Amino acid sequence: MTGTFDFNNDSHRRYNPLTDSWVLVSPHRTQRPWQGQQEKTSADGLPEYDPTCYLCPGNVRATGPVNPKYESTFVFVNDYAAVKVDQPPYEQSGADDDDLKSRLLQAQGTRGTCFVICFSPKHNVTLPLMSVAEIENVLDTWTALYEKMKTETTFRYLQIFENKGAVMGCSNPHPHCQAWCTENLPSEPAKEFTSLRSYKAQHGTCLLCDYAIVEQQDPIRIVIQNESFIALVPFWAVWPFETLILAKSHTASLVDFSPKQKTDLADLVQKLTIRYDNLFQTSFPYSMGLHQAPINPLQDESQLAHFHMHFYPPLLRGATVRKFLVGFEMLGEPQRDLTAEQAADRIRAVEEVHYLLK
């Protein structure tokens, strides 16, 4: 075959150095007709207070406790926590590398605690509809919880994440996120620390610091940035409009932020999520999570950690068409039809004023 390779039209693989994995990019497939499942769009016009909502101020939760009439953020231990503080210890008996059963059927007991963090007393807002100051309050709440878990527990990691929208499995539209604190380092941040450690050993520098430099040199994948942070579609993105918020300086965790960094992050989160909503004029669903230093780090983890946030939104072609990771994606490797550069260009092109506020 003759001609020049075209990243916007020809199939290729892209390497993710954070997780030591590859993604297949097939940009020519964006032209295929769609006759698959179409999702329902989330309804606008929710009330500011819903008497049936388990998270609204003053309401009774499913297990009986009554929420206080909070006026800002509100944190409580999840009534249906995924991990428990008190449970019997478990140690696998008869561990023997020569025994196939103990070699292949491994299990660990794990303890921890889970929290729900309400962003606002208002039932009808989301991050893009909140002010920068209100989002700063959320960051302060995350930071306080991080410090509390670091001081009061021996748990290893606090994973803060938000599932937004019914299509992402969120069962309550009230603005909230979760934080799971576990005595083990979860698999995804563990993979990142392995890659960060390997890169540092080989090159003597931070992988994410170097990546921030590369992206700023040729900002075709940068959606928006300010003095402290970059929001970009990563070169190796899997989800169609996946983004990464990356600290420009080597900052390990929320507790290391300066007041300027905190304000800049709140501002960037607001602007990025507004662009998401404006892209298809819908309350854009996603899973979002923070990756930062463990609350009780081991070895070199505090030095290796570089604060960043992942946004994984599923929408593909519009408000009702989503991307599914099935078939080759589950059995071979992740695959996407839209290049990172094309996705960044589309997110950049929308306005920064929320479509509901025009």
From TrEMBL:
Protein name: Galactose-1-phosphate uridylyltransferase
Species assigned in the record: Lipomyces starkeyi NRRL Y-11557
EC top class, as a word: transferase
Pfam families: GalP_UDP_tr_C, GalP_UDP_transf
EC numbers on record: 2.7.7.12
GO BP field: galactose catabolic process via UDP-galactose, Leloir pathway
Binding site for Zn(2+): C53, C56, H123, H174
Essential cofactor(s): Fe cation; Zn(2+)
Transmembrane segments: none
Binding site for Fe cation: E192, H291, H308, H310
Galactose-1-phosphate uridyl transferase N-terminal domain location: 6-186
Pathway: Carbohydrate metabolism; galactose metabolism
Active site: H176
Residues annotated as domain Galactose-1-phosphate uridyl transferase C-terminal: 194-356
Binding site for UDP-alpha-D-glucose: 29-32, 62, 78-79, 163, 169-171, 178, 323-324, 328-329, 335
Record's catalysed reaction(s): alpha-D-galactose 1-phosphate + UDP-alpha-D-glucose = alpha-D-glucose 1-phosphate + UDP-alpha-D-galactose
Family matches, as InterPro entries: GalP_UDPtransf1 (IPR001937), GalP_UDPtransf1_His-AS (IPR019779), GalP_Utransf_C (IPR005850), GalP_Utransf_N (IPR005849), HIT-like_sf (IPR036265)
A GO cellular-component term linked to this record: cytoplasm
Cofactor note: Binds 1 Fe cation per subunit. Binds 1 zinc ion per subunit.
SUPFAM superfamilies, per database record: HIT-like (SSF54197)
Alphabetic keyword roster: Carbohydrate metabolism, Galactose metabolism, Iron, Metal-binding, Nucleotidyltransferase, Transferase, Zinc
Superkingdom assignment: Eukaryota
Family, similarity comment: Belongs to the galactose-1-phosphate uridylyltransferase type 1 family.
GO MF annotation: an example: zinc ion binding
